[in-house]
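Handoff note, outgoing to incoming analyst
You'll be picking up this chain. Sequence as last confirmed:
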Amino acid sequence: MEIRLAQHGVLNPLAPSVVCGLGWNGNAARRRRGWGIMQVMIRSSGPRIGWADLPDAVRVAVEAIIGDRVVEAVPQVGGFSPGTADRVRTTSGRRAFVKAVNPGLNERSAELHRREARITAALPVGVPAPRLRGVHDDGDWVALVLEDIEGCHPVTPWQTQQLTAVLDALSTLAAHDVTPALADLPGTGADLAGDLQGWQRIARDPPETLDPWAQAHLPKLVALAKRAPAALTGDRLVHTDIRADNILVRTDGTVVFVDWPWATRGPGWFDTLAVLINVSLYGGHDVDEVLSAHTPVGVDAEDLTAVLVGLAGYFLDSARQPAPGGLPTVRAFQAAEGAAVLAWIRQRLNT
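Most recent structure output, in case you need it:
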């Protein structure tokens, strides 16, 4: 979910710069056929610095964590953070993923890197996530050194085989309680409560470009969104920011979820709903059918709709705000997400 983009402008995917099946080792014709999909992925990213732009002291500290000198750094595409995101290789062939930032690049980025480091280090064994190898924090620059994942983003539009693998991995994730080490994670509903009331803000000041159906149903949308925070209670570990470029598919087909600063404690179905929002954006699947097949028995369908409504309001309200500093593409991406979720809501409400 891009639920925090408008406020903090930080999404730093630990990810290769290729979509699965569209790597740059194929022939030219294959690359041309893949360009449309690659272009979609690139649109949801912003400019960032690279390994060579880091201060010498930061690079030396990272090399000390890895235990060897870095001789190659490959920058990664995707996400909105202006910090580094590099897969590095050392003289002896060791590999790691390095992401580094300071407040001068983005006001909240360093704080979020610290939060991600703490959460990633405390994730239970069995959670499909990269392992944290170490952190450099000098009070200004914060650098995370993580396990390098040999994999790629899911193809978009989503392929059935990869979507199934991701949904299975989300079921594994949803089986995990919040451990004592993560006991201070915020509740999903409480953490997102303000964000989920975007329709209230839109109703007070409707934009001229507001979808006519949304305009005609504003009172209903506002009412449903008010229900959303209460629907997001639970005791499961929730990633809270699942979408294609926060997912890696390994060569053996297994799935890893990356970028954990927004983890919360809530219902296990939230991450499934989140990834299906991403699926709805790119098309190719009946997301309601998939959701029905992967929602635990007993979950109220009205709760699912209420959360979707709240998220649509968040995206559409955020998309009309000025872009955060250094993140010029984020508002267009949110507008596209909002339009996709709104179309899904219309389908669920049969109006």
